[in-house]
């Protein structure tokens, strides 16, 4: 397949896709040609049978009812069958078929029609949805699995390309590929109990790394990274950057591994909002954009919007508090939450609406190859559907005005709050009140501090500065040696990459040393990270993060971050 294309089930015969599942005894539709699960072990090996009746079906001589009588295709008493007969030949009297037998025949016939009709219908829709989906080969970034066993991170990119009817008033007229206009990082907890959706502002100043892209002819091309910081929305579309470049940018920014991306364009908002029957929004005051490009005119209170009006609502910033991109992000989050509620409360209970929504969504959808089929997206949707709306948190990445601009028009990550958000996501800590999950994680981490302590003179540790104050590594080593008795500590300078928080990495047999250093430094249990390395032949590694203030001052990472948040189950309109 080309680097970007539309996936279809080419050359597949629908009849070949019904496969016997030996574990259930039923035939199942395997639309993406996945191999059937292996049969369970049997006492002896059997020779594979040619295609034909299922095991346990009709045997030579004809099937029998439970009372031992032959079925209708048996021979008559004279040895003839129920095939064509001589019309002048006298037919022997035969017992009338029982009502039960007739009912079974009718039931079997109806089920056969339903099966054939259902398979054709399912195949039609699978083929249609599969043909709608666009895929991009993003190389070695991301995951080949739909969802692994642990936490997952999915990047949802809103592309501001202007293709499609009625989209001339939006976006950049000169850009034919679009930019990463609206970007949401969807973090799904490992136990699927909660999720966090973080909006990344398009005007965020950040570094964009080098990015290897796949070309349509199968070759690769490396797009150079930014020289210093640049706007986040340039991580896609500029100089040939693909969605994989946006994924790499988010990984550099957050310290998280991004598994998949899903990219929508303007048309997706219009078709999706229409397919669900409209999305309810609520305004404290009228919203009018008579002079802007959206021409939006909504009254105060409740409104149900769809199509062009829904897109205008998401694109508009006029009439909002500061008329900024951050204000617009807040409106977008409320719209997304309202649509999620509509999908879960109304659409999922209606098969016809589900198909309409799936058709509308996939027509404007581009994804990575790891989720590049209808069946894979269905698997993903089922997993995400397990999460209660009240446990889905929506927030904007904490930012501050760019200090390098006299009149700020861009933003930078909040130096105090943003690392705390990244740390919580890295540790898979919920922003919602999922008490059982929080207590389990907290107890597991706190247990690392339980146990014997080594003597201070036996502690061996290398100290690196990964985001603490300038010179923090040297000052910490000096303090450890002079005030704490840790003579076997060494300054290793700056860490190779910025750390989200202070962390102590140690081997299992260095746990007593780690506990002692945690006591001396005031490290919380969350800062301890046992490694998989079997033996602690070398020293432990202490990387000082932005939460480190000064040697001798305890490091305390707050469990809750003071940033504006909302929940997916919160209605825009009260009452």
From TrEMBL:
Record's keyword terms, sorted: Membrane, Transmembrane, Transmembrane helix
Protein name: LCP family protein
Gene3D superfamilies linked: 3.30.70.2390, LCP protein (3.40.630.190)
Basic residues composition bias: residue spans: 87-101
Family statement: Belongs to the LytR/CpsA/Psr (LCP) family.
PANTHER family associated with the record: POLYISOPRENYL-TEICHOIC ACID--PEPTIDOGLYCAN TEICHOIC ACID TRANSFERASE TAGU (PTHR33392:SF6)
The UniProt record lists the keyword Transmembrane: yes
Membrane-traversing stretches: 103-126
Cited InterPro entries: LytR/CpsA/Psr_C, LytR/CpsA/Psr_CW_biosynth, LytR_CpsA_psr
Span of domain LytR/CpsA/Psr regulator C-terminal: 459-548
Entry superkingdom: Bacteria
Residue ranges, compositional bias (Basic and acidic residues): 1-11, 559-575
Lineage: Bacteria, Bacillati, Actinomycetota, Actinomycetes, Kitasatosporales
Organism name: Streptomyces sp. R02
Biased composition, class Acidic residues, residue ranges: 70-80
Compositionally biased region (Polar residues): 216-232
Domain Cell envelope-related transcriptional attenuator: 179-344
Region (Disordered) location: 1-101, 211-232, 530-575
Comp. bias intervals (Pro residues): 50-61
